[in-house]
Amino acid sequence: MAKEPVKNNFRQVAQTLAGLEEVLAGELRKLGAENIEQGSRAVSYTGSLKTLYLTNLSSRTAIRVLVPIADFPCPDENVFYEELRKIKWEEYFSVDATFAVEAITAASAMTHSKFVALKAKDAIVDRFRDRFNRRPDVERKNPDMNVHIRISKDHCIVSLDSTGTPLYKRGYRGDSALAPINESLAAGLIMLTGWDKIMPLVDPMCGSGTFLVEAALMAKNMPPSFLRRSWTFMKWKRFLPYHAQLFNEARDEVFGKKTTRVNTIISGSDIDFEVVGAARDNVKAARFSHEIRIENMPFDQTVPPHGGGIVILNPPYGERITPEDINKLYKEIGDHLKKKYIGYTAWILTSNEEAEKHIGLHPSKRYKVFNGPLECSFMRFELYSGTRKARGSRADSEYVAPANDNELKPQE
């Protein structure tokens, strides 16, 4: 039987992707988190055991939720080992449990994360062996306890990972040769657009369909964990023991907010027939086959729903395309947006600063985010209808369609 849940708040850290810290902080605030502090790719806060459950269940931009248990200076590997060995690991998990260690390092004397993880494993094992003449086993795939080590500027923070499989792995995407956008990043970018879940959302270069599925989940108030059945915290017995009743309360609270259907238009398209097939499979796995429409169509032939909305694009960045061709593609994107997407707000994600110039529009807003290792700009372009006379009354960052389509030009 589970022990009574911890009544007092304790420190928690939710990791995210660079550029999404503010979005995550907003999510945590709505979940009742307190003392929120934004860091680099992470947000720390205080919350209850229920907050820990709610974050794992409902955060769209968190990758994992950590609980810090120790921190100390570690100028070298010997100090690191001894400090880790001092931690009373037997209070966190038993000798019969399995564990794994993940480590990251930055700007420190200890530069190799794999070496740090191995050294940490040795310290933990030696602590158990000294006291019980036995040692717990290391299990990488599905351990009972995930130990997370972060060393930055010769300072170490030791945490326990409550999540296990990263939260961005929603479970609806199949195996594919594509390099799809991270689900948490896609959700965070949609949230940055300020989409109201009512106006249409269109992705005319949809790839694996991640933007579309994440948008549908938001529109239906469906938590991103809807296909997930387990988290590492469910295996905790000594440290913050798993409390099934409290978890069920949190789950009921989260799933109780969902609506019966998506009440807006969410649609996409892609030029590649096989890619469209993969996207449709993902949409089906996410149970949105009747609510998301995907077509096989080149971008320059797309026509969005009438009345305006949000168009979101993650075009190629040019890694496998010549500079001339990528610049031409971005010019075609800008031209088609100005011709067929009047009344929409366009958002484009790219890491190619040179190609970006060929869009022929001035962004009214720009966020810096990372798509994997690539530093990207996520830019907003307003596409208003009007006349040349109306241009003078608009901000320079906005595009106003000329009265005659033959006069389409980048705004001065």
**Uncertain parts:** 1-5, 387-412
Distance between the termini: 70 Å
The number of distinct structural domains comes to: 2
What is the overall number of helices? 11
Going by CATH, the homologous superfamily of the largest domain would be: Vaccinia Virus protein VP39
Can you walk me through this structure?
With 412 residues, the protein is an alpha/beta fold. The protein has 2 domains: 10-161, 2-Layer Sandwich (VC0802-like); 183-223 and 259-407, Vaccinia Virus protein VP39 (Rossmann fold), CATH 3.40.50.150. Helices cover 30% and strands 25% of the residues. It contains 11 helices and 16 strands. It has helices at 21-30, 49-58, 77-86, 113-132, 183-193, 210-219, 244-255, 273-285, 323-340, 353-356, 388-391, and strands at 10-15, 34-38, 42-47, 64-73, 98-106, 137-138, 145-152, 155-161, 201-203, 266-270, 292-296, 309-313, 344-350, 365-371, 374-385, 398-401. The radius of gyration is 24 Å and the shape is globular.
Structure, briefly:
This protein has helices at 21-30, 49-58, 77-86, 113-132, 183-193, 210-219, 244-255, 273-285, 323-340, 353-356, 388-391, and strands at 10-15, 34-38, 42-47, 64-73, 98-106, 137-138, 145-152, 155-161, 201-203, 266-270, 292-296, 309-313, 344-350, 365-371, 374-385, 398-401. It has 412 residues and is an alpha/beta fold.
